[in-house]
Amino acid sequence: MSNLPHEPEFEQAYNELVSTLENSSLFEKNPDYRKALAIVSVPERIIQFRVVWEDDNHQPQINRGYRVQFNSALGPYKGGLRFHPTVNLSILKFLGFEQIFKNALTGLSMGGGKGGSDFDPKNKSDNEIRRFCVAFMTELSKHIGADTDVPAGDIGVTGREVGFMFGQYRKIRNQWEGVLTGKGGSWGGSLIRPEATGYGVVYYVEHMIKYVSNGKESFAGKRVALSGSGNVAQYAALKIIELGGSVASLSDSQGSLVLTEQEGSFTPEEINLIADLKVERKQLSSIATSDKFSKKFKYIPGARPWTHVGKVDVALPSATQNEVSGEEAQALIAVGTKFIAEGSNMGCTQEAIDVFEAHRNANKGAQAIWYAPGKAANAGGVAVSGLEMAQNSARLSWTSEEVDARLKDIMAACFQNGLETAKEYCTPAEGNLPSLVAGSNIAGFSKVAAAMHDQGDWW
């Protein structure tokens, strides 16, 4: 790859997968899978285009638009659209690469892809966002479809943006189809979709807790550190509280809001206030000094919560990539954290993962910290997107109870698949916990590789 530009995020995701495959018995048992690895690491197609839109001063503005259609062996390309000024091809390739194996772990018929733009929705009027979405979808509509590529939302793309884009797709193509997920409930959306990623990571960690404790423990009484304050963090926090746990922190790109006392928790009312704040695209700092928050929380500008939360049982990075460093991983272990799972994609640096895995290898069972990667732990969001696709195809809607039950089943199967695969290909020392990162990587990759082989992509 020496002739390619440096793509640090994609290279990190690629190296993380390859290291776990190489350190297992997978290639020893299936040597031809090396061919599949070389092929799956190159996107089937990358689409890049300009997006010209008009601001409220009637001036033309230009942004870059992308769609990385990475792998379709298991189904239509599936993955979100991210609108954020940091978006570039390296980030979208890393997200799309992870999405291939995450979607495979759900057991649903979905390939992997990702897209977006370097457009920044912050400080834009609703009309400016609408005009941008119309211009973006005018080009993207040529490359997607219900049986080809089904995007969803991601950072900067809420139900509002999905609505604007869906409307433009429908007008251009003159057809109504389930081409985007995360739609409104009255026009093809699925119940539980906004909650799905946050709920799913909690359901996944609950299986981790039950496995280590032989079913004797749950989230009840557990203190949890969360980063982020968007959909994932909000709904994870609400589900943790519902299950009897306490939430010690939330954060955004400007800083962290942390409980001042070791006891207590964010309340559902406080989380709902923060959710309203985020709809208005405001920062946590704007409420940190208010009477409702200043007496109970401390706001730490420019900091992530991990070294400020005190003793916690569970850590759930749920903001963005690389938000837990090696030093922060050591700090979490030092305060007794036993479970860490990524609500965000690639939330931990490779250094942090190495710290967690070394501690797991050096300690027996409940004495170790147990790490779960985002491709397994946060698969709930895309799982319910897949369920939305199924409902659209059948022209029906399931109840929230039915969708939630299916989500629970998918997360349970995702955990069990990673666990059993790790035992088979990376047999842990007696008394040690299996590696969920290795098991999830191998399970997802093996499923995709086998499908590619059957379809003649490699032989």
Automatic annotation (TrEMBL):
It catalyses: L-glutamate + NADP(+) + H2O = 2-oxoglutarate + NH4(+) + NADPH + H(+). SMART domains: ELFV_dehydrog (SM00839). Substrate binds at residues 78, 99, 102, 153, 385. PROSITE patterns: GLFV_DEHYDROGENASE. Signal peptide: none annotated. Keywords: NAD, NADP, Nucleotide-binding, Oxidoreductase. InterPro entries: Aminoacid_DH-like_N_sf, Glu/Leu/Phe/Val/Trp_DH, Glu/Leu/Phe/Val/Trp_DH_C, Glu/Leu/Phe/Val/Trp_DH_dimer, Glu/Leu/Phe/Val_DH_AS, Glu_DH, Glu_Leu_Phe_Val_DH, NAD(P)-bd_dom_sf. One of its GO terms (biological process) is glutamate biosynthetic process. Residues 190-456 form the Glutamate/phenylalanine/leucine/valine/L-tryptophan dehydrogenase C-terminal domain. One of its GO terms (cellular component) is cytosol. The record marks 154 as: Important for catalysis. The active site is at 114 (proton donor). It comes from the Eukaryota. NAD(+) binds at residues 197, 231. One of its GO terms (molecular function) is glutamate dehydrogenase (NADP+) activity. Belongs to the Glu/Leu/Phe/Val dehydrogenases family. Homohexamer. PANTHER family: NADP-SPECIFIC GLUTAMATE DEHYDROGENASE 1-RELATED. This is Glutamate dehydrogenase.
